[in-house]
Q: What sequence folds into this?
């Protein structure tokens, strides 16, 4: 296995509980672009949010991650097989996969090695899909608090690779011709507790706690609670960027 730094072991159970789910329309669209639906490979699966959705559309899903802690807390599904291995060394047979996906994790990978492995395992006509979501939005007041927390408080504690998420993976060249995605929305109705749980999974929060011996969340959540209105749940939205590239036949 290649060198691996686990940024999320500290929050593996919360990651499984509080990370947002992706829209079903995304997976319907992905499935429409592969000539067969025998096997999908979800790389850096984390707690399996994408893998479980793929299992509703593919006969078999191989979901891999180098983090044992993440896999131990992953969503279970009869159509998903979880395996501990890196995306750069998938240990899958050549030309055995119809779709390769990377959800909110491409920025952690060794891209040349991963793209080489993708080309090895993808069948001709298969597809590589990667996507990411940026900073959430609720309303102008809460959004301003979140932006200050994200940049002003946590800025020095984000791994450098996180900058690729902020740009929607702009500048990363995928190995095959790309297909323009449809407009897709990503949103959820969340309580204040769910919002706090989600923020607790951020890698920068874990790093802040480790380096400073303090928790940055209580102060933020107190400020958010003071302006939380509109009932127990609020609509949360994320900007979702999807890129799909298709391997030539």
A:
């Amino acid at each position: 296995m290649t060198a691996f730094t686990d940024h999320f072991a500290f929050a593996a159970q919360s990651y499984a509980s509080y990370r947002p789910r992706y829209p079903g329309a995304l997976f319907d669209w992905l499935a429409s672009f592969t000539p067969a639906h025998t096997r999908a490979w979800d790389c850096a699966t984390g707690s399996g949010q994408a893998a479980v959705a793929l299992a509703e559309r593919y006969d078999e899903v191989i979901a891999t991650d180098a983090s044992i802690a993440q896999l131990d807390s992953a969503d279970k599904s009869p159509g998903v097989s979880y395996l501990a291995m890196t995306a750069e060394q998938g240990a899958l047979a050549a030309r055995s996969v119809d779709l390769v996906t990377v959800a909110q994790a491409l920025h952690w990978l060794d891209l040349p090695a991963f793209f080489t492995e993708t080309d090895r395992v993808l069948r001709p006509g298969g597809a590589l899909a990667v996507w990411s979501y940026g900073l959430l939005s609720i309303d102008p007041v809460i959004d301003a608090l979140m932006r200050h927390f994200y940049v002003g408080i946590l800025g020095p504690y984000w791994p450098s690779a996180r900058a690729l998420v902020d740009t929607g993976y702009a500048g990363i060249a995928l190995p095959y011709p790309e297909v323009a995605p449809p407009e897709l929305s990503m949103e959820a109705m969340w309580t204040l507790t769910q919002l706090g749980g989600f923020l607790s999974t951020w890698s920068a929060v874990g790093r802040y706690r480790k380096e400073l011996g303090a928790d940055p969340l209580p102060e933020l959540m107190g400020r958010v609670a003071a302006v939380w209105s509109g009932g127990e749940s609020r609509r949360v939205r994320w900007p979702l960027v999807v890129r799909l590239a298709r391997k030539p036949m």
The chain is about 35% helix and 20% strand. The first helix runs from residue 12 to 18.
